[in-house]
């Protein structure tokens, strides 16, 4: 007796969730379920062929080279203390604002995201730098940790972004266009988070007292510390925008740029390079395995025809783009409470993206949307990876206090997302101009 392919797909998805819930690494869970599913559908020979074809396809994908290069660039920025310079400069200029030190952490996270491409990395880097200063001026522990945890999420929206590269590869969307699309929303969210902190601390000064006073000469002298990050960001984004090189080539240029700047500053040593290479290689291998597993399980789901059936059913409901976005937003909020970012992306994109295309939603705009939903997942209880990183950095602050302080940032991000939906040009204007030539 043969089993209906749709039923096989449903069983496989429940098995995948069970494996992830048991703590099996997401890459191995995807590969296991995808391979077993292919075996059940078309037998051992077909499953083996698909694994080999996916290995060959991913191994020859030029775009994937960007992932280890951007990770290496972020490692070098961290190991050569360029991130510390960035925070020090921002802190000197705005530390006297209400909640100025927390605002400085948001701006520094945005700057670090512009040269790293990760969220957890930004939190782990900035947390040990920012928390001592905020403790020194008696900042509220929950607000201090929450501002860094939420600011770290900007790292996956402001280019270069590892998650945008993954989304672009999975959906065959232009990675360069995605990078351009993330700039204005990233700056928009950065400004919104900063304004939220200032308003909260204006009405409740005890949350974030003003920081240390610096002379104008000290402020001006610190501006030179901004130059490395600004130069690298302009080199990458300007090169892509101007059509001088593609995102993968930009990654190589970025690594060279950071290396040369660190070398000139006397901060590039062989131990630093070795540690940076090891860190980038470790994370890259994890991401490559996840991507391979994602392709295998996507192929399995295509064979079951469940994605086509689901798309036809959702389109038949006639919800329209805004109705679909409301449904997707609620779905991603719930999934963010149960899954990490990679699992959430891989499980949903095979189902959600065909619906997006069928209803006429811009794939580039949707890429920014889904990245923002991933940002929210990084601060949503009980998973909230960024929150737990901050809890380790600041053990004196209870996890519950951080999650409580995250709530205003969560709703501000949702409000920004609603603005992007009503005015999609905020997202699509820059890529449409960059790639219209």
UniProtKB/TrEMBL annotation:
<keyword id="KW-1133">Transmembrane helix</keyword>
<feature type="transmembrane region" description="Helical">
    <location>
        <begin position="313"/>
        <end position="334"/>
    </location>
</feature>
<dbReference type="GO" id="GO:0005886">
    <property type="term" value="C:plasma membrane"/>
</dbReference>
<feature type="transmembrane region" description="Helical">
    <location>
        <begin position="7"/>
        <end position="30"/>
    </location>
</feature>
<dbReference type="InterPro" id="IPR010656">
    <property type="entry name" value="DctM"/>
</dbReference>
<feature type="transmembrane region" description="Helical">
    <location>
        <begin position="250"/>
        <end position="270"/>
    </location>
</feature>
<feature type="transmembrane region" description="Helical">
    <location>
        <begin position="223"/>
        <end position="244"/>
    </location>
</feature>
<feature type="transmembrane region" description="Helical">
    <location>
        <begin position="36"/>
        <end position="55"/>
    </location>
</feature>
<feature type="transmembrane region" description="Helical">
    <location>
        <begin position="367"/>
        <end position="390"/>
    </location>
</feature>
<comment type="subunit">
    <text>The complex comprises the extracytoplasmic solute receptor protein and the two transmembrane proteins.</text>
</comment>
<comment type="similarity">
    <text>Belongs to the TRAP transporter large permease family.</text>
</comment>
<dbReference type="GO" id="GO:0022857">
    <property type="term" value="F:transmembrane transporter activity"/>
</dbReference>
<keyword id="KW-0813">Transport</keyword>
<keyword id="KW-1003">Cell membrane</keyword>
<feature type="transmembrane region" description="Helical">
    <location>
        <begin position="282"/>
        <end position="301"/>
    </location>
</feature>
<feature type="transmembrane region" description="Helical">
    <location>
        <begin position="62"/>
        <end position="80"/>
    </location>
</feature>
<feature type="transmembrane region" description="Helical">
    <location>
        <begin position="100"/>
        <end position="124"/>
    </location>
</feature>
<keyword id="KW-0812">Transmembrane</keyword>
<feature type="transmembrane region" description="Helical">
    <location>
        <begin position="145"/>
        <end position="170"/>
    </location>
</feature>
<protein>
    <recommendedName>
        <fullName>TRAP transporter large permease protein</fullName>
    </recommendedName>
</protein>
<dbReference type="InterPro" id="IPR004681">
    <property type="entry name" value="TRAP_DctM"/>
</dbReference>
<feature type="transmembrane region" description="Helical">
    <location>
        <begin position="341"/>
        <end position="361"/>
    </location>
</feature>
<feature type="transmembrane region" description="Helical">
    <location>
        <begin position="176"/>
        <end position="203"/>
    </location>
</feature>
<feature type="transmembrane region" description="Helical">
    <location>
        <begin position="402"/>
        <end position="427"/>
    </location>
</feature>
<dbReference type="Pfam" id="PF06808">
    <property type="entry name" value="DctM"/>
</dbReference>
<keyword id="KW-0472">Membrane</keyword>
<feature type="domain" description="TRAP C4-dicarboxylate transport system permease DctM subunit">
    <location>
        <begin position="14"/>
        <end position="426"/>
    </location>
</feature>
<comment type="function">
    <text>Part of the tripartite ATP-independent periplasmic (TRAP) transport system.</text>
</comment>
<keyword id="KW-0997">Cell inner membrane</keyword>
């Amino acid at each position: 007796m043969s089993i209906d392919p749709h039923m096989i797909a449903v069983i496989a998805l429940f098995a995948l969730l069970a494996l992830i819930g048991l703590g099996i690494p997401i890459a191995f869970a995807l590969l296991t379920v995808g391979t077993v599913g292919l075996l059940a559908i078309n037998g051992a020979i077909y499953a083996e062929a698909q694994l080999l074809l996916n290995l060959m396809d991913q191994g020859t994908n030029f775009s994937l080279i960007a992932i280890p290069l951007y990770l290496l660039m972020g490692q070098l920025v961290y190991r050569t203390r360029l991130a510390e310079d960035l925070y020090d400069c921002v802190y000197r200029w705005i530390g006297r604002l209400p909640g100025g030190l927390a605002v400085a952490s948001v701006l520094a996270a945005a700057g670090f995201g512009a040269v790293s491409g990760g969220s957890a990395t930004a939190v782990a880097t900035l947390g040990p730098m920012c928390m001592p200063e905020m403790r020194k001026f008696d900042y509220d522990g929950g607000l201090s940790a929450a501002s860094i945890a939420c600011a770290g999420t900007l790292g996956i929206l402001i280019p270069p972004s590892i998650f945008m590269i993954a989304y672009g590869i999975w959906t065959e969307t232009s990675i360069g266009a995605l990078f351009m699309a993330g700039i204005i929303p990233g700056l928009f969210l950065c400004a919104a988070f900063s304004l939220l902190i200032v308003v909260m601390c204006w009405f409740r000064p005890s949350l974030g007292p003003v920081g240390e006073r610096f002379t104008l000469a000290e402020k001006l002298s610190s501006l030179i510390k901004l130059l490395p990050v600004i130069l690298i960001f302009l080199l990458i984004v300007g090169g892509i925008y101007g059509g001088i090189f593609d995102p993968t080539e930009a990654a190589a240029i970025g690594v060279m740029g950071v290396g040369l700047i660190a070398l000139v500053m006397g901060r590039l040593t062989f131990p630093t390079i070795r540690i940076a290479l090891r860190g980038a290689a470790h994370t890259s291998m994890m991401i490559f395995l996840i991507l391979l597993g994602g392709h295998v399980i996507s192929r399995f789901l295509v064979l079951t025809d469940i994605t086509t059936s689901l798309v036809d059913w959702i389109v038949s409901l006639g919800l329209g783009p805004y109705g679909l976005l409301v449904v997707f937003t609620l779905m991603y909020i719930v999934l963010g409470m149960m899954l990490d970012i990679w699992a959430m992306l891989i499980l949903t994109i095979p189902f959600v993206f065909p619906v997006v295309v069928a209803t006429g939603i811009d794939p580039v705009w949707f890429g920014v949307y889904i990245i923002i939903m991933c940002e929210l997942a990084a601060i949503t209880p009980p998973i909230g990876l960024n929150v737990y990183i901050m809890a380790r950095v600041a053990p004196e602050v209870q996890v519950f206090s951080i999650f409580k302080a995250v709530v205003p940032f969560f709703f501000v991000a949702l409000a920004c997302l609603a603005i992007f939906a009503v005015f999609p040009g905020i997202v699509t204007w820059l890529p449409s101009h960059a790639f219209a030539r």
